[in-house]
Task: structure prediction
Amino acid sequence: MTAKIFDRSETQEFLQVLSGLTNDKGNPRVKEITHRLMSDLFKAIDDLNITPDEYWTAIAWVNEIGASGQAGLISPGLGLDHYLDERLDAIDEELGIQNGTPRTIEGPLYVAGAPVSTGFARLDDGTDTDGHTLIMHGKVYGADGKTLSGATVEVWHCDTRGFYSHFDPTGKQAPFNMRRTIITDDEGCYKFQSIVPKGYGVPPGSPTEQLLSALGRHGQRPAHIHFFISADGHRKLTTQINIAGDPLVNDDFAYATRDGLVPDVIERTDADSIQANNLNGPFAEIVFDVHLTPLVNGVDNQVNLQRKRAAA
Ligand code: DHB
Ligand code: FE
Result:
């Protein structure tokens, strides 16, 4: 059947009513957005002849996504997080702002309150014995091109099983394992010791994975390390680096890979380097400098205070 009812005046009036546009209470912005999204959904049901069976299958899936707390997981999988980044880039372009270090998605697995130290931190607690030691460091630069001391570098990543502390299904990791906040030193440097993370995959059998499978897609990310970098007078930067050489670097289900965010990984085996870092064996080294952008008319025009960061 190809019955079309979207353009009927009764349907259009119904959309106005159900979106609250015919009453004077509530929130005008919520009404505007609801009206647009419901109109697009009604039209899609009409255009694609979405059956009640298909519709109620989708509702059951939405319930599963909510019950398992996975709305923040499927969001990057459907490209929405990356799309929001592309829009911020476009806004910056209009304002003539050049991001020396590209932004990329936050992902759903940040936890506030990690231990703070100045200059250097060890991120891992040594219990992930499959891990290859990583030394990562760099300088944070301000809008004037000078290094910024006292900048805040928040860093978090997963272990060699692809699990993040606070979200580890095995419960194995201590709170804040592989999560730290490092304040840059007098030279604007941050440095940390950790282990090289492995790739991450969405939980097997999860509603997130079910949808991706139906799309013929996988739910894997290349190994990556997340950062928030902030400093007085500058906009907070949300970004990640990928571990170069990971086979999924250009096949990330969350679409976070960007040019400029895949620094070289240098394998250090010489005694001098090992000794200089107080290590006992070979390690991987990544150097990654960060360039922040200035506030816009005195404010961070991109700050995102509303976002709820779900606990594990
Ligand atoms: C997801 C997980 C991540 O570690 C990440 O950085 C981005 C997205 C996810 O499960 O959707
Ligand atoms: Fe991640």
